[in-house]
Design brief:
- The complex is a heterodimer of chains A (231) and B (419).
- With 231 residues, chain A is of the alpha/beta class.
- Chain A contains seven helices and nine strands, in the order βββαββαβαααβαββα.
- By secondary structure, chain B is α+β, with helices and mostly antiparallel strands.
- Chain B has two domains: 2-45 and 281-413, no CATH class; 54-270, no CATH class.
- Chain B contains 13 helices and 15 strands.
- Chain B has helices spanning 2-12, 14-46, 62-70, 82-89, 117-121, 148-154, 202-208, 226-230, 252-260, 272-313, 317-325, 330-371, 384-413, and strands spanning 54-58, 80-81, 94-106, 109-114, 123-124, 128-129, 132-135, 143-146, 161-162, 165-166, 181-187, 197-201, 238-239, 241-246, 267-270.
- In chain B, the strands form three sheets. In chain B, strands 1, 3, 4, 7, 8, 9, 10, 11, 12, 14 and 15 form an eleven-stranded mixed β-sheet that branches.
- In chain B, helix 10 (272-313) runs parallel beside helix 13 (384-413).
- The longest helix of chain B has 42 residues, at 272-313.
- The radius of gyration of chain B is 31 Å and the shape is elongated.
- The chains are: A alpha/beta (231), B alpha+beta (419).
- At the A-B interface, helix 1 and helix 2 of A face helix 1 and helix 11 of B.
């Protein structure tokens, strides 16, 4: 297991995080948020509520304006853009709504994409095969171009990729929106159980309140405008 | 990793990439081809005549004298006296000389009246002498030695009887029909105007004009037969020009001045090297224009490619977001696009060189036989490296535009691309 299994260090900690676009009122204001290892957070909000911006901040794409984001003990504010990119490669997994894979690479190459940018992932290829198998992707699909897969299969490959580096954080941006109900539930279970095995904390964004029950905590983007403390 | 990505990405878009590479290949092959022909033309042009120290003719510009005496283009302003030529020949510095008498033609090919010294002393290229492919040098009055192109184009063999025409057009109304010449020798190809010439003895020139009143046809019934002509005095009175080889190169300028100040008649003595260089400078303007146009074709092609890339960027936004999500710095996006362009450019260069070499090899025979052009198959010159580096550099500079836009977009839109 990875270094962030140390339960004393929170997987994610936000301290007085405020973000605003130039010449606008703050989009959100989070005075304090702390997630321990394996505690999952559901972020709920309509479009335009700042979800996307928050995810870009958490993933280290945007720099922090005010406050701090600490991922597995590593403060983001102190890091340069390049260092944040590296932190994202090794400590944050990302799963999008859909179209998670580079169409012209094979399934296996897609999963291993992370290892090109992360600091050394031990036995990356072995781990990739293990994860693909666990996520129910038959071996004959591994060398197939990613665009040959169904949406459900693609989303599972995306989880394998996001978990390859055993990240502290898995950011999922409405990954079930393209799936039907049956697939949605099996997807959620698969994702959360794999995340738990890796000791990864999941941050899940959705406008579907039905998924709320899978998570330990929830955060309503609407409340964040007022700076309400969620937990 | 980036390389693998770039390769896979290009392969994924192979249709577009193939068209891009083809268009770039054509323009690069054009550039290299024109540059190559420029080199070849220059070397073949400046090696048309070598070893000759001075060319002497009637007073005229040096270009005119060079053009008619060496390139068989245009006409002499005047003839010069045979007598004076004999005097010059005895100049202590003169090692050898070749007299030339022009003014007649055979089916469009110029007739050169000269003597056996022409075959002994005339040199071209790297001081190569003329060689006979078949037969021998003329010995009799009514014999001719023809250039390789003349032989090939007109299908002449040894022993062929040819009729000369007065004047230099390909269609002439005054033929020297009564006095045919026999082809006794065919010269090996030289890649110079010699290939397109018919050489006959000076006496032959005299003989076919016997009985002509100054500049006009003989009156009917006054014609002189071949037999009669042979018993007459065939020593020429005038010639058109002559070439001189000197004993010491150092003396060239002195002899040139002496000839230019010759008391007997107005002469012009030119240094063929200097005149060739001057002529080449005039011609090279055209070539530089050609090269410039080719360069513009390349720029246009590259701009087209960059436009295609720009149009395709939106489709690739998702791809870039995925790369960012797995931890690729924004610079990766920039590098990926530049690398793809670089790969396409390198592929095009390789294809262009292949196409060019294959083309030169394929058309080698045709060029040599039809146009008398001897073009080397190897298109590589010293400056080729620089030309190709310039193409690559230009590709990267122009490619920086879409690469930078993709980079900026990757920075701004981050992970969550909504399509």
């Amino acid at each position: 297991m990875s270094e962030h299994t140390d339960l004393k260090i929170p997987a994610l900690e936000l301290k007085s995080l405020v973000f605003s676009w130039p010449d606008q009122a703050p989009l959100f204001n989070i005075p304090q948020l702390k997630l321990a290892q394996g505690q999952h957070l559901f972020i709920y909000g309509s479009s335009g509520s700042g979800k996307t911006t928050l995810l870009n901040l958490l993933a280290g794409i945007y720099p922090c304006q005010r406050g701090d984001i600490v991922i597995a003990g590593q403060s983001m504010t102190a890091l340069s853009a390049a260092k944040r990119d590296q932190l994202r490669a090794s400590s944050i997994g990302v799963v999008f709504q859909q179209l998670n894979l580079i169409p012209y690479l094979t399934v296996l190459q897609n999963v291993l994409l992370v290892s090109a940018f992360a600091k050394k992932i031990p036995q990356a290829e072995q781990r990739a095969r293990y994860l693909l198998q666990k996520l129910g992707l038959e071996q004959q699909l591994w060398q197939a171009p990613a665009n040959r897969l169904s949406v459900g299969q693609q989303q599972r490959v995306a989880i394998a990729r996001a978990l390859l580096s055993q990240p502290a954080l898995l950011i999922a941006d409405e990954p079930t929106s393209a799936l039907d109900h049956k697939h949605r539930d099996s997807f959620m279970q698969l994702m959360l159980s794999e995340a738990e095995l890796c000791g990864t904390t999941v941050i899940f964004v959705s406008h579907d309140p039905a998924l709320r029950s899978y998570f330990h905590f929830e955060l309503d983007m609407e409340q964040l405008h007022q700076g309400v403390q969620p937990c | 990793m980036l390389m693998q990505l770039a390769r896979a990405s290009l392969w994924n878009r192979k249709g577009t990439v193939l068209m891009t590479v083809i268009s770039l290949t054509i323009s690069i092959a054009l550039l290299l081809g024109i540059d190559h022909i420029r080199h070849e033309a220059k070397s073949s042009f400046t090696s048309t005549v070598s070893g000759t120290d001075l060319i002497v003719g009637a007073r005229s510009s040096q270009l005119n004298l060079l053009l008619y005496s060496v390139f068989r283009i245009g006409n002499a302003t005047n003839n010069i006296s045979w007598q004076n030529y004999q005097t010059v020949k005895t100049h202590p510095q003169v090692a050898w000389s070749i007299p030339i008498s022009l003014g007649d033609s055979h089916r469009g090919y110029r007739v050169i009246g000269t003597n056996e010294d022409y075959f002994k002393f005339y040199q071209y290229g790297e001081k190569q002498p003329l060689k006979l492919a078949q037969g021998k040098v003329f010995a009799g009055v009514y014999q001719a030695v023809i250039g390789s192109v003349v032989a090939q184009k007109l299908g002449y063999q040894l022993g062929e009887k040819i009729t000369l025409s007065h004047g230099v057009g390909s269609v002439s109304f005054t033929q020297h029909k009564d006095k045919p010449f026999e082809v006794v020798g065919i010269l090996a190809p030289t890649g110079t105007p010699v290939d397109q010439s018919v050489h006959i003895p000076l006496q032959g020139i005299e003989a076919i004009h016997l009985g002509w009143q100054s500049g006009g046809m003989p009156a009917p019934g006054k014609g002189i037969s071949v037999e009669q002509s042979l018993s007459m005095d065939l020593e020429p009175k005038v010639i058109t020009a002559y070439m001189l080889g000197l004993k010491a190169k150092m003396a060239t300028f002195v002899v040139q001045r002496q000839l230019n100040e010759f008391k007997g008649e107005p002469l012009s003595a030119i240094l063929p090297g200097v005149a060739l260089a001057e002529l080449w400078q005039m011609l090279s303007m055209v070539e530089n224009m050609l090269l410039l146009i080719t360069a513009l074709v390349i720029v246009a092609t590259l701009v087209g490619i960059v436009t295609t890339l720009l149009a395709g960027l939106k489709e690739r936004q998702r791809e870039m977001a995925i790369l960012r999500a797995v931890g690729a710095p924004a610079s990766t996006v920039f590098l990926l696009i530049e690398l793809e362009l670089l790969l396409m450019a390198l592929l095009s260069i390789a294809a262009a060189v292949l196409v060019l070499v294959a083309g030169l090899w394929g058309f080698r025979e045709v060029l040599a036989s039809q146009y008398g052009l001897f073009i080397s198959i190897n298109p590589w010159h010293d400056q080729t490296v620089w030309l190709l580096s310039a193409v690559l550099g230009l590709t990267l500079v122009l490619g920086a535009i879409p690469a930078f836009l993709a980079y900026r977009r990757a920075l701004a839109s981050g992970l969550m691309v909504r399509l």
